[in-house]
Amino acid sequence: MKYVKQFWIILLFCALGEGLRVLLPLPIPASVYGLILLLAALLTGIMKLERVEETADFLVEIMPVMFIPAGVGLLTAWGALKPIWLPVVVITILTTVIVMVVTGRVTQFVIRKDRKKTEK
Known about the structure:
This protein is mainly α. The protein is 82% helix and 0% strand. Helix 1 crosses helix 2 and helix 1 (2-23) crosses helix 3. The longest helix is centred in the C-terminal third of the chain and has 35 residues, at 85-119. It is extended, with a radius of gyration of 19 Å. The N and C termini lie far apart (45 Å).
């Protein structure tokens, strides 16, 4: 029952994100609004991590399964993608490398900052 309650809490934040998407005329997906609201609630202490932690961990664990429909969608749309497959592949590789480099640099920065704080 605990998992169901936690799932409903996460769904509530998703619904709030949908509401914000309707109210704000910005080109931001509702899921991003929901994530930002949940992050704000966690950071401010309005929502305790323990109230959503187990279900959130489960959802992160099964995330690769969620990409299967998107992959199948790409296969079914091959006719439309066939003329532009090379630019799509190049852009995908470049953006993946950029994301990996930026993530690595940010992680190194945070680790160095944490070490300096620990040494003081």
